Amino acid sequence: MDKKWYEKNGSNGDVVISTRIRLARNLEEYPFPVRCNEQVKHQIVEKVKDAVLNNNSVIATRFTCINVDNINAGEKVSLVERHLVSPEFISEKSEKALLLLDDESVSIMINEEDHIRLQVMSEGFELDKTYEQASRIDTLLDERLKFAFSDTLGYLTQCPTNLGTGMRASVMIHLPALQATKAMRKISENLAKLGLTIRGTYGEGSEPVAAMYQLSNQISLGISEKTAIENLKNITLQLVNQELQTRENLSKQLAVQDSVYRSEGILKSARLITCDEALKHLSNIRMGITTGLIENVPLDTVNRLIVEIQPATLIHYTGQKLNPQERDAVRATLLRNNLNS
C-alpha cells in the first residue's frame, strides 16, 4: 500500500504541506440532509456506497466503508486529526458513513451538510493533479447517482455559499515566520478582498496549530473551477515566497536559532511531552530544516509526526487505552525514536 499523504513531502513542501479539493454534491431525488429522516438518510448511504463500491473503476476495491455511528469517540476524533472528515461530521449520530481509500487520499462523507462531501488530498502543492482526480471520481458518481443541478445556479447545495461549482480548493500551509512577525491579520484582510479565506488548521472556527493554516477559495458561484484554482495557485505562490523570505531573515537572529535548537534538543530527549508542546517544537524544527539550521531530519518525518502524535490518533495507532501521562510518554518515545534515527 502507498504511503499516506501526510507521510510524504511534496512540491513546495517547505511551506505547503498538503492540497485538498472538496466537492459538495446532493442527489436530485432527495431533500437536503437537514430535511431527511433517518430512513431516508439510510437510503442515501446505501445508494452512495453502491455507486462507489460496485462500479468498474480501478480504485473501487480499495475503499472501506465506515459506519460513523458505530465507532467510538476516539476513533471519530482521529478522523478529524487526520483531516479525513470535518468536525461537524462527527458531532452527532445520524446515519452517517465514510468511504475511505486505503491510502487516505480520498474520503467521501455521506450525510454531512450535503449528501456527499467528496475530498481528495495530496502532499505538497498539487492543485491541478488533485482537482483532476476529484473530477474523475465526481463524474463517475454523477453517472450513477444524478446530482442536483441548476442551469442557473450550478450544483445545488444546502448552504448558499457552496452554490455553483460546489468546490472548495485549499492548501495547508506552514507559516511560522509570518505568524511570528504578526503579519497574519493583515494577510487575512487582503486575502478576503481577493475572494480567498485563511483559517485555522481544521477549517472554519478553528485556531492554527503549529502555525499551520488552511488557505481556500471563498467564492463558488459565478466562477469556474479552473479560475478558482488559478487564483488560489497564484496567491499561494506569493505567500510561499513571502514566508520563505521572512524565514531567511529570522533564521539569522540568535534568539530564533536558539529556539530552533532548543526544540530539537527537547524532542530528541524528552520522556514526557504534551501534544501542544510537541507541536510547537515540531513547527520550530520544520522551520529549522527549511532554513538549513537543522540537518539529517527529513521533512516527511516531521509531517508524519505532526499527525501521528495527535491524542486520538496516537491511541488509534497503538491500539491501547492510555491515560494522559501514558499518552505523553508514548508520544515522547515516538518522537525520540524518529528524530534520533
Give your account of this protein's structure:
The protein has about 350 residues and is an alpha+beta fold. The protein has two domains: about 5-245, Glutamine synthetase/guanido kinase, catalytic domain (Creatine Kinase, Chain A, domain 2, 2-Layer Sandwich); about 255-340, no CATH class. Helix content is about 45%, strand content about 15%. The chain has helices at about 40-55, 75-80, 125-145, 175-180, 185-195, 225-250, 255-270, 275-290, 300-310, 310-320, 325-340; strands at about 15-25, 65, 95-100, 105-110, 115-125, 150, 155, 165-175, 195-200, 210-215. The strands form two sheets. The protein has an eight-stranded antiparallel β-sheet. A two-stranded antiparallel sheet has the order 6-7. A hairpin with a 5-residue loop joins strand 4 (about 105-110) and strand 5 (about 115-125). Helix 2 packs across helix 10 and helix 8 packs antiparallel against helix 9 (about 300-310). The protein is globular. It starts with 15 loop residues before the first strand and ends with a helix. The model has no long low-confidence stretch (mean pLDDT about 95).
